[in-house]
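Final report, closing paragraph on structural work. Over the funding period we assembled a curated collection of sequence-structure pairs, and we close with a single example.
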Amino acid sequence: MQILLIVLIALHVLPGIFWAGTTFVLARTGGAAAEQLAYPQLGSATLSMLAGLALWGLLHRTGFGTFEQVLALGVVCAVAAAGVQSAIGLPALRRLKGAAPAEATGLRNRIAQAQRMASMLLAITVFCMVAARYF
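Its predicted structure, as stored:
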């Protein structure tokens, strides 16, 4: 059981760090290099959330106290962040490949806007994970 928890925590935290880190960078740089980072970013988001779901099932299935409520807020924010990145960022990214320079600027702005929204949500997520045990 101990080894399983260690592996699940690593599969939750490490991709989560990549996801949040690339989100913050893309938000700050206006979506520069989004073409290279968007798909690995969403892959790491998926892996992080699946590992988090498994951890929840192993560690938090018996109650819904304050600890779990704070974590649940983080979960909602993480799912919303992935939704924003998928619903706004990916369609703009797909259209960016064949876009004229004038249209590309607007698409980059949409990508950056999606990353900024997601970065705020992921900041709340990280805060919830760190602070949950102290509530």
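The chain has a mean pLDDT of 95. Residues 66-96 form the longest helix (31 residues). We thank the funder for supporting this effort.
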